[in-house]
């Protein structure tokens, strides 16, 4: 689905830009928000 692709690209960008726990937590928060919307 489009949402899954969006999450994957966000994750890849986060990993490339910051290899840290911050990017991980941000992607998790975004994922949870998308799940709540759906």
Structural features, described:
This protein has helices spanning 2-17, 21-37. With 38 residues, the chain is mainly α. The longest helix has 17 residues, at 21-37. The model has no long low-confidence stretch (mean pLDDT 75).
Features:
single chain, 38 residues, mainly alpha, 2 helices, 87% helix, flat
**Structural shape:** flat
Low-confidence stretches: none
Strand element count: 0
Helix fraction bin? over 70%
The SSE string, one letter per element, is HH
Q: Helix segment count?
A: 2
- Largest sheet report: none
Domain unit count = 1
Q: Give Rg in angstroms.
A: 10 Å
Which percent range describes the beta-strand content?
A: under 5%
Mean pLDDT across the residues is 75
- Report the span from N to C terminus: 13 Å
What class would the helix/strand composition place it in?
A: mainly alpha
């Amino acid at each position: 689905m489009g949402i899954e692709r969006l999450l994957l690209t966000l994750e890849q960008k986060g990993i490339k830009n910051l290899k840290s726990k911050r990017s991980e937590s941000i992607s998790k928060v975004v994922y949870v928000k998308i799940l709540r919307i759906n």
